[in-house]
């Protein structure tokens, strides 16, 4: 039977997706690089080619999962046409929907607080450059400088994660607070941006 050769990046993404599924289903202690290789139907040597240890595989699986979870929010922020305020409202609503997070139960399970925090931080880092660009585009459209756009993007994404990370969160009160504070931060950003 002829051997199927796949794009190395595609193979790597498949291994990461398979690893995240196994870690979420079986727990960290019960998964090995060999088990991931077996579940992905590849030779163990190929899996070790991409990931030299279980720890590295786990870390990269969480990073990959975080990027996939953040895709919807990033897509909203990258849209052209709707105002920044509209995109921020929609991005917040998109991020608050847990139906886009297939392993939410794993990350919210008792004793997994550190894992949840790790995922949240990775999602923030995935969203941050998209929000920075949205702030920069908004400033450019107004003919203003985008001073401190990266810092503001960090404050906004990390603040929203903080509001949404508690048990049973996000609730409507937390979302309303996030909207209110995001609007205030954007208003201050706009007031501080002098014409370029």
Describe this structure in words.
By secondary structure, this protein is mostly helical. The mean pLDDT is 88. The chain has helices at residues 8-26, 33-39, 44-50, 54-78, 84-96, 104-108, 113-141, 149-164, 172-192.
The class by helix and strand makeup works out as mainly alpha
Total helical segments: 9
Number of strands: 0
Q: Cα distance, first to last residue? A: 64 Å
Largest sheet: none
Share of residues in strands: under 5%
What do the pLDDT scores average to? Answer: 88
Rough outline: elongated
List descriptors:
mainly alpha, 9 helices, 196 residues
What order do the helices and strands come in, and which of them pair?
Elements lengths: L7 H19 L6 H7 L4 H7 L3 H25 L5 H13 L7 H5 L4 H29 L7 H16 L7 H21 L4
Helix pairs in contact: 1-2, 1-4, 2-3, 4-5, 4-7, 5-9, 7-8, 8-9
In short:
72% of the residues lie in helices and 0% in strands.
């Amino acid at each position: 039977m002829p051997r199927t050769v796949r794009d190395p990046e595609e193979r790597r993404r498949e291994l990461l997706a398979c690893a995240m599924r196994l870690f979420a289903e079986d727990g960290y202690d019960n998964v090995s690089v060999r088990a991931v290789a077996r579940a992905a139907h590849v030779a163990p040597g190929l899996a070790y080619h991409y990931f030299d240890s279980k720890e590295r595989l786990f870390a990269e699986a969480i990073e990959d999962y975080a990027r996939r979870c953040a895709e919807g929010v990033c897509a909203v922020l990258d849209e052209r046409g709707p105002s920044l305020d509209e995109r921020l409202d929609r991005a917040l609503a998109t991020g608050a929907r847990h139906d886009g997070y297939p392993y939410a139960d794993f990350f919210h399970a008792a004793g997994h607080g550190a894992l949840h925090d790790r995922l949240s931080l990775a999602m923030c880092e995935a969203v941050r450059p998209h929000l920075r660009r949205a702030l920069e585009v908004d400033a450019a459209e107004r003919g203003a400088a985008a001073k401190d756009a990266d810092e503001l993007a960090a404050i906004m994404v990390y603040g929203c994660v903080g509001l949404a990370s508690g048990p049973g969160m996000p609730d409507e009160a937390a979302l309303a607070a996030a909207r209110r504070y995001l609007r205030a931060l954007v208003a201050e950003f706009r007031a501080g941006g002098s014409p370029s």
